[in-house]
Amino acid sequence: MIVALPIAALVWASRAQGAHGFWHWISAPEAVAALKLTFAMAGLVALTNAVFGTVIAWTLVRDDYRGKNIVNAIIDLPFAMPTIVAGLLVLALYGPTSPVHVDVAFTRTAIYLVLLFVTLPFVVRTVQPVLYELDTQMEEAARSLGARESTVFRKIVLPSILPGILSGVAMAFARALGEIGAVTILSGNRPFRTEVASVYVFNQNASGNGTGAAAVAVVLLGASFALLLGIGGIRRLATRHERA
Amino acid sequence: MTRTRSVAAAVLAALVLTTVAAAASKGTTLSLVAYSTPKPVIAKIIQAWQQTPDGSGVSFTTSFGPSTNQAKAVAAGQPADLVFLSTGDDVNLLVDAGLVNATWNKQSYNGIAADTVVVFAVRDGNPKHIKGWADLVKPGVQVVTPNPFSSGSAKWNILAAYGAQRALGKTDAQATAYVKQLFTHVVSQDTSGSNATNTFLSGKGDVLITYESEAINARLVGKNIQYVIPRQTMLIELPAAAISKSQNLDKVNSFLRFLKSVPAQELFAQYGFRPVNKTVAAEPTVVKEFPARPGIFKIDAKYIGGWRNADKVWFDPTNGRMVQIEQADGGPTTG
């Protein structure tokens, strides 16, 4: 009831002007530009996370170094803080008054950076537990049979952690699609350039165009729903050995 | 376990009872829904009114936020006794909802509590020599203004840009072309006027198009901000109106009268708003703080045609001029 009813209401609102109205607003040039930018950014962010999230998870599980516990705790920080604070942090660090003299604020690079920041924990937290559980005996056996490190990773480690990576990537992607607080503060929100779909929805709603806002929101919702189904599929694949 | 729970319930019930009792003993409570900028001055004015016989014993609950959002919330049922908004358009929204009497703009001072004008905030020492609208479209000048589809102040800014050109004798097509050109210089379109101010204060852009009151307010809270009042600019009229079904209409009307009286108008002036009360407006300090400009025009200027017309021509989300201008600015050829 809590989830399904609002979704139904949203879909209903998006069709207030009929299917024709829905397509009209989905294909409005500004909406198309915002959706393209959003999906491209979310995709880039998810891919970057796939690589760096896995590396971080690896160092947290397999390596031992001073301050590891602190790093482990810091990873969750983006989950714990309001995303608008994340936006302010990135603005302070990479904005016009940057202490490191890197000014990328109000560009697409800034959107990428801040989305990376808020989605970083997903892949780390989905890969980490799988790595903990992973039996190192198989890796040692492979090494003793003369396999190189890269082969060990590719043939033994990766297949085990891949479902974890994919489900983390999917969650990071879905999160990046919907982010507004962190983005709005430092993207400049320029239509056709740095305006993401969530900000477009916000603007259309504020200007009284509920139908246009709902139509674009339905597209975002549909994409997120497809992703969640995808995650379900990946989980089933991952556990097929146990179930068999 | 059960005992602790019932003790907790008893304590909670007692708390609720005392709170309700306390609220009841205070007498009348008025709910004021307002747009974001006047928060500090409204607090002072309420305090001053509570010192008068009329206002003594009346308490307030206040809500501040983006003007259109606030008006929509009230239209959707948020309890309110009176509103103080940034555009007459937002009051009209409440007229359409049957909550504000259609004659609100026939009250004293046409229903307006205070004024301000559209100004240019510039960097320290005005390094780009910004004086008038023409300077905003010179090569290399970066402008910050909010998004007109979400922000009331952005609407004022755009109509000011257009109206200034008309006041200079340009045709409708020339003035519209100016707005189009101006938007190629816009580097950030924040969702609200105050977000745009923060973007400018974070170091982005050469010019922020804003309200005089917002610029003075930023100064009052210690921000280093300078501003230029262009010769042709728009007078922004800030309406205050009673919600007609309020249970305390006499108190509301008494407060609305106080808003336009000398003590309240002097407070407005201190906080950067132009007073509507002629006595206060003539005070030497006020005249000095708020210089007159020869080319000041209003929303009902012939070439703008009032809020309802401006909204339709400029800000209609389907085919308003701003939809086309944003599109031309961001189109693939310049992207």
Name the beta content range of chain A. Answer: under 5%
Return the CATH architecture of the largest domain in chain B. 3-Layer(aba) Sandwich
Instruction: Please summarize the sheet with the most strands of chain B.
Output: 11 strands, mixed
Number of strands of chain B: 11
β-sheet strand percentage of chain B: 15-25%
Largest interface, counted by CB within 8 Å of the partner chain's CB: A-B, 27 and 30 residues
What is the top-level CATH class of chain A?
Mainly Alpha
* Overall body shape of chain B: globular
Rg of chain A to the nearest angstrom?
21 Å
Helix proportion of residues of chain B, in percent? 40-55%
Head-to-tail CA distance between termini of chain A = 35 Å
Structural class of chain A: mainly alpha
What is the fourth-level CATH superfamily of the largest domain in chain B? Periplasmic binding protein-like II
**Assembly form of the protein:** heterodimer
**Separation of the first and last Cα atoms of chain B:** 66 Å
Sketch the topology of chain A as an H/E string, one letter per element: HHHHHHHHHHHHH
| Distinct helical segment count of chain B | 15
Write down the overall mean pLDDT of chain A.
Answer: 87
Rg for CA atoms of chain B: 22 Å
> How many separate helices of chain A?
13
What would your notes on this structure say?
The complex is a heterodimer of chains A (244) and B (335). Helices cover 78% and strands 0% of the residues of chain A. Chain A is mostly helical and 244 residues long. Chain A has one domain: MetI-like fold, CATH 1.10.3720. Chain A starts with a helix and ends with a helix. Chain B folds into two domains: 28-114 and 236-289, Periplasmic binding protein-like II (D-Maltodextrin-Binding Protein, domain 2), CATH 3.40.190.10; 116-235 and 294-330, Periplasmic binding protein-like II (D-Maltodextrin-Binding Protein, domain 2), CATH 3.40.190. Chain B contains 15 helices and eleven strands. Chain B has helices spanning 2-25, 39-50, 67-75, 88-96, 133-136, 152-167, 172-183, 193-201, 212-220, 249-259, 262-270, 278-281, 284-289, 306-315, 321-330; strands at 29-35, 59-65, 82-84, 112-122, 143-144, 186-188, 207-211, 226-228, 232-242, 274-275, 295-297. In chain B, β1 (29-35), α2 (39-50) and β2 (59-65) form a beta-alpha-beta unit. Chain B is globular and about 65 Å long. At the A-B interface, α3 and α11 of A face β6, α8 and α15 of B.
